[in-house]
Specification:
680 residues; alpha/beta; Rossmann fold; phosphoenolpyruvate carboxylase, domain 3; 7-stranded parallel β-sheet; 6-stranded parallel β-sheet; 20 helices
Length: 680
């Protein structure tokens, strides 16, 4: 296995058994360097066992098939374990039998916390833990939860903890805008990972620069529309809704993320106060605001069709309507023809699209080998951009073979990709069957994809880590990295800020690397102690929140305020899924779709259809068929309002609810269910 000089330099301390972070740009061989460390570790250490953890499922199979299996298969046993494989059911057995385990961090964390003999492992079962994209080891991220277990054991006097090897292209600044805060962020990541050093090339920097050539960066800034009758019409309709509500407080921010946040709070307040008019208007205002985002990103046509589809579904789903529903539907219906006509006027079309057309022509017109990625903010905009490219007459002769690449997480708001669909798109892109991806942030990190000639960040406003990761995709000779946005807009200002933050990050890392060893170690220990103390305080605070009996908490439908369940009806299945076990609950919901395709095989259950409120048709969750026998409704807490002895309140996550949650007992439930059936 051949390594470059800079790779040899950065792995030196790891070969001696030290905990380190390897900081190398995208595409320069971080994984290959880690692979070599793993190989030497397995050869030299008695009873060695290596785990590599990643934060995305497709990276499990990528690292296995591209690196570990080809290079180590003759000497060692390697196994990939991910959420869509049955192997996770017997995780502990495979850890015993294999030398290298590559898995998602969530699977390892579940195994560390599991009571099951087939699944439970200890960190001390491993001698080397490799953490991919380790800059995510902070706050409540699953990487950090794994390392919290590690640090707890370390400060409890445990020995034989695994050696830690972190890999990153960009640790970021953690939102810091000052040098000292950026240093604190870097030190915090080092403390969380218990690392002795951040390693980057010092003596072999020229070799790294030759390998990691930076693309040509260009700011493709376009002027704002001089006139925008379509956007103006949408805003007028939104103002009309505000007048109907008698609330004109924040109409000046319409079309912005600030406005979106305000509308989210308005909906929350409407739900908690049972003010259905306020809540319903807030939901519709957010849809209009989403349409304005689409209008700003792609075509007027896309924004119009997005709203039209929403109102068609509203009419179809809602069998009974109150005064507010009628007002909102008629408002759109009375103005939809005018909106449609305005959307057809090419004089006012999005100027960003014309510039994107020019960029694609330049890079695909005279080259049959060009590869590119367009990064955009939402799943909806990836699909709209794909339609635009496929229908654009001037791009048809350029041999552009295009597809979308989005997240695999299930969403009611927009179509998700299954993990198999993701793999298929990436494979086709790698083989050349596709040469242009339109992607959300899912393609920024880790993916083994061809060197791109052109990377376009299309109207994005993200942090410096995303900028560095996306730029790292443009690695072909004379490649180009384009930032395409409105001139003078917030997006372009943020991109310029990101460049400054990248420089701040580099200076902060250099400062940490140059700290005297004793001073560095003291700072790390102090941060680790503080972190463990904070965790204990956080746990105590979380427990104190559970102040009500489950019998005293009622769940009301968030949309229509119908009382449908009590806290003591809820059980937690496998520490993840929250189900209602009360048989009378079925009178309040209806299953209204075919079984949901999650794109992966679950261990003990298969999904049923989505469920919704029988009265107002609001979505509540989905059915699960557990162990092939029991059908249980999984409900999402965000779709309900909790009525407690103190107040009415909404919650985003079950972990924050103010009452204790009981674990689901399959045996007990099955016996009770059988008795109920016999009684009938």
């Amino acid at each position: 296995m051949e390594l470059r000089d800079y790779q040899w330099e950065v792995i030196g301390p790891a070969l001696e058994g030290q905990n380190i972070i390897i900081w190398l740009p995208t595409g320069t061989g971080k994984t290959r360097a880690a692979l070599y460390v793993a190989m030497r570790h397995l050869e030299m250490k008695k009873n060695a066992k290596v785990a590599m953890i990643v934060n995305k499922v497709h990276l499990v199979h990528q690292h296995y098939s591209k690196e570990f299996q080809p290079h180590l298969k003759d000497k060692f046993k390697i196994i990939p374990i991910s959420g869509d494989s049955e192997t996770k059911s017997f995780f502990a057995n495979f850890v015993k039998d294999y030398d290298v385990v590559i898995c998602t961090a969530q699977i390892l964390h579940n195994a560390l916390r599991s009571d099951s003999e087939e699944k439970h492992v200890e960190l001390t079962d491993f001698t080397l833990l490799i953490i991919d994209e380790c800059h995510h080891t902070q706050k409540d991220a699953v990487y950090n939860k794994v390392m919290e277990i590690y640090l707890q054991k370390k400060f409890s006097g445990h020995r034989n903890l695994p050696q830690i090897l972190g890999l990153t292209a960009s640790p970021g600044t953690g939102g810091a805008s000052t040098f000292q805060n950026a240093v604190d962020h870097i030190l915090m990541i080092c403390a969380n990972l218990d690392t002795r050093k951040i390693m980057s090339p010092q003596t072999s920097i020229k070799g790294l620069e030759a390998k990691a050539k930076q693309p040509i960066k260009q700011y493709d800034l376009v002027p704002q529309r001089l006139e925008d009758p379509f956007g103006d019409k949408l805003k007028k309709l939104m103002v009309t809704i505000h007048r109907y509500l008698g609330d004109l407080d924040f109409i000046t921010d319409i079309g912005t993320q600030i406005y979106e946040q305000a509308v989210v709070l308005m909906e929350k307040d409407g739900a908690e106060t049972s003010n259905r008019r306020k809540r319903t208007c807030a939901i519709h205002l957010r849809k209009y605001n989403d349409a304005l985002f689409l209008h700003d990103t792609v075509r007027m046509k896309d924004a119009y069709e997005f709203l039209e589809e929403y109102y068609i579904m509203e009419k179809f789903v809602k069998q009974s309507r109150d005064e507010t529903d009628v007002f909102l539907y008629e408002l759109f219906n009375d103005n939809c023809n005018e909106l449609l006509e305005l959307s057809k006027n090419m004089k006012y079309e999005n100027p960003k699209l014309k510039r994107l057309e020019e960029i694609l022509k330049k890079h695909f017109e005279n080259s049959s080998s060009s590869h590119g990625i367009i990064f955009t903010r939402t799943r909806q905009s990836t699909h709209s951009l794909l339609q635009w490219i496929n229908s654009n007459a001037s791009l048809k002769g350029l041999n552009i073979k295009c597809a979308t690449l989005t997240g695999a997480g299930f969403s009611n708001q927009s179509k998700h990709m299954t993990q198999n669909e993701q793999k298929d798109v990436i494979q086709k892109f790698r083989q050349g069957a596709l040469n242009l991806l339109i992607s959300t942030s899912v393609a920024e990190e880790g993916l083994d994809i061809p060197e791109c000639n052109i990377v376009v960040r299309y109207g994005l406003m993200t942090n410096e880590i995303s900028m560095v990761q996306a730029r790292g995709r443009a690695r072909a000779e004379d490649s180009c990295y384009s930032f395409l946005a409105k001139s003078g807009g917030k997006e372009s200002r943020r991109e310029m800020t990101n460049e400054s933050l990248e420089d701040l990050m580099k200076r902060a890392i250099k400062y940490v690397q140059d700290l005297p060893e004793e001073e560095y170690e003291e700072k790390i220990k102090d941060l680790q102690r503080e972190s463990l103390t904070e965790r204990l305080v956080k746990q105590a605070k979380a427990e104190s929140k559970r102040k009500f009996s489950s019998l005293d908490v009622r769940l009301d439908c968030r949309n229509c305020s119908a009382a449908v369940a009590y806290g003591n009806d809820i059980r937690v299945v496998e520490d993840t899924h929250h189900v209602n076990i009360n048989p009378t609950f079925k009178v309040y919901y209806e299953e209204y779709t075919l079984p949901v395709n999650l794109g992966k095989k679950m261990e003990n259950w298969v999904p049923g259809g989505e469920i919704r409120c029988r009265f107002c048709k609001a979505n509540w969750g989905m059915m699960m068929i557990y162990r092939g026998l029991t059908s249980l409704p999984i409900i999402s807490i965000k779709n309900f309002v909790l009525q407690t002895p103190e107040n009415r309140k909404t919650y985003k996550k079950w972990k924050d609810v103010p009452f204790p949650l009981e674990q689901f007992n399959y045996s007990e439930y099955s016996e009770d269910h059988l008795l109920d059936t016999d009684d009938e």
